[in-house]
Specification:
The structure is a single chain. 80% of the residues lie in helices and 0% in strands. It has helices at 4-22, 33-49, 53-68, 74-91, 96-99, 106-116, 121-169, 175-230, 234-243, 252-257. The two termini are 26 Å apart. The radius of gyration is 26 Å and the shape is elongated. By secondary structure, it is an all-alpha fold. This is Motility protein A.
Length: 258
């Protein structure tokens, strides 16, 4: 698991809490139940209204994936594909059936099985590329969902502040309550901005980045399987695969050389 998202969100909120403390405020003053219910409940609600129930159910899964996703090391994947290419060239394609038990990547395993089963090369490429495309579309929708939430939450925060100010104006006859009521009203706007810029939009960007890397690795697997099926030279296979590595996922030795 890459800890960047957890560390980033923790650092962002930590900075806010530190600011409150340094200015002599109380962190507890921003943790008011009504504004939190409005911001998170309202944001999820309007996001649901723009989609289907299945989309709403996936919101939690997308968030968990953004914080816990684990991408296969690209250099390890290249090395595994090259070893498979060497064995296929030496012993034949059917020899890979025994080697498949050591393959953990489900997409690579599926492609190898199709190749071993004698699937036509063009049809094999079409099947795998269609799966890559489907993944890209799913990831694009996931990123858009949280981008939409990031767009909705500040406006919902303003709604909460407006309601809070209405409540404050209704209590003009009790001036001792006005300070607390007005401060509470602006907590909704604060959480609208915090949730958008420190949770929803970062998750959207993380999903885009994860999709870029994972889809790139899948495309690399497609190229590897096609070359294995064609009986290509393993060294040429390695060069082709490394040229297809997505930005930021190059093997460590290549980065040092650069």
């Amino acid at each position: 698991m890459d800890p960047a998202s957890l560390i980033g969100v923790a650092l962002a909120f930590g900075s806010v809490f530190l600011l409150i403390i340094l200015e002599g405020g109380s962190i507890g003053s921003i943790f008011l139940i009504p504004p939190l219910i409005l911001i998170f409940g309202g944001t999820i609600g309007v996001t649901m209204a723009g989609g289907y129930m299945k989309d709403a159910v996936n919101i939690g899964k997308i968030m968990v994936r953004a914080f816990t996703t684990k991408v296969t090391p690209p250099d390890a994947l290249v090395e595994q594909i090259v070893k498979l290419a060497e064995r296929a060239r030496r012993e034949g394609l059917l020899a890979l059936e025994d080697a498949m038990k050591d393959v953990e990547d489900p997409f690579l395993k599926k492609g190898l099985q199709l190749a071993i089963d004698g699937t036509d090369p063009e049809e094999l490429a079409d099947i795998l590329e269609a799966e890559v495309k489907a993944k890209k579309n799913a990831d694009k929708f996931a990123a858009k969902t949280f981008a939409d939430m990031g767009a909705f939450s500040p406006t919902i925060g303003i709604v909460g502040t407006t309601l809070g100010l209405i409540n404050a104006l209704e209590n003009l006859a009790q001036p001792e309550k006005l300070g607390h009521l007005i401060a509470s009203a602006f907590v909704a706007t604060l959480w609208g901005l915090l949730s958008a810029n420190m949770i929803f939009l970062p998750i959207s960007n993380k999903m885009k980045r994860v999709s870029e890397i994972e889809s790139g690795l899948m495309e690399m697997v497609v190229a590897g399987i096609i070359n294995i099926q064609a009986g290509a030279n393993p060294r040429l296979v390695a060069q082709k695969l490394r040229s297809l590595l997505p930005p930021g996922s190059e093997p460590a030795e290549e980065k040092k050389a650069a």
